[in-house]
Design a protein that fits this description.
Elements (H helix, E strand, L loop, with lengths): L1 E5 L3 H15 L4 E5 L1 H9 L6 E3 L4 H8 L9 E6 L1 E5 L6 H5 L9 E4 L5 H12 L9 E4 L2 H10 L4 E5 H4 L5 E3 L9 E7 L7 H9 L3 H9 L8
Parallel strand pairs: 1-2, 1-3, 6-7, 6-8
Antiparallel strand pairs: 3-10, 4-10, 5-8, 5-9
Helix pairs in contact: 1-9
């Protein structure tokens, strides 16, 4: 079973896959990248069975293109944006310093393609920092945004809370009313509508053990 998963959800997906494989005997082949990249690949016929996006728009668009199995789209997690640094605890004031220091930079996923990047852009706009765009270092996804900040090439970066909640460094969680809720949808692709392993995994992620794994990694889970 081939699973395409948004980069922000790669770590919890590995944990979910291990648990599902142990109880089912099925094997998952996991690919991680930006949701936008997977969306383009699936439109071009890439042979994935399940698509775990970082947003709702792309699974919905695939559904409208009749590329998905009917009635399989659902929200599997609600994401949380974090501002992370290796060196010091960031805050809203840290972001506001961009306006006073034109050499300072902040990493974020490209808002055109990545939902967490769009959320980061909205936080910056909420703080009146739209004019600092020349100081934004854009990654393809939140994994690359994290890499930019981890390398020290930028002082801090916007990432997914799940990437940093149990690791090194320091983070700050912007208020959730500063950005559009990050609702992450999964969909079974039409080419896999008769695949028992894929349908089984889609059912598994709704079970209490799977929901506990998702919550452990810093996500909220919707009501069944």
């Amino acid at each position: 079973m081939r699973v395409a998963v948004a980069s922000n959800f790669a770590a919890p997906m590995n944990a979910l896959a291990a648990a599902y494989e142990a109880q089912s005997g099925h094997q998952l082949l996991i690919s991680s990248a930006s949701s936008g990249k997977f969306f383009a690949q699936i439109r071009q016929g890439a042979p994935y069975h399940l698509f775990f996006s970082a947003d709702q728009d792309k699974p919905l668009a695939l559904e409208q293109m009749q590329l998905t199995a009917s009635g399989t789209r659902s929200t599997y997690a609600h994401g949380t944006l974090a501002l992370w640094s290796r060196f010091a605890a960031p805050t809203a004031t840290t972001l506001q310093s961009l306006a006073q220091n034109p050499t300072q930079k902040v990493a974020l996923a490209n808002p055109k393609f990545a939902p967490y990047g769009m959320a980061a852009k909205q936080v910056l706009q909420h703080l009146g920092l739209d004019h600092t765009r020349a100081q934004w270092v854009l990654g393809e996804n939140v994994a690359q945004s994290y890499q930019f900040a981890y390398s020290g090439n930028v002082a801090f970066g916007f990432v997914s809370y799940s990437q940093v909640k149990s690791g090194n460094g320091f983070y700050w969680l912007p208020p959730k009313d500063w950005y559009t809720p990050i609702r992450q949808d999964v969909v079974l692709l039409k080419t896999a509508q008769n695949n028992p392993a894929a349908r089984g995994f889609l059912a598994y992620i709704q079970t209490p053990p799977a929901r506990e794994i998702i919550q452990f990694w810093g996500y909220e889970v919707p009501d069944n």
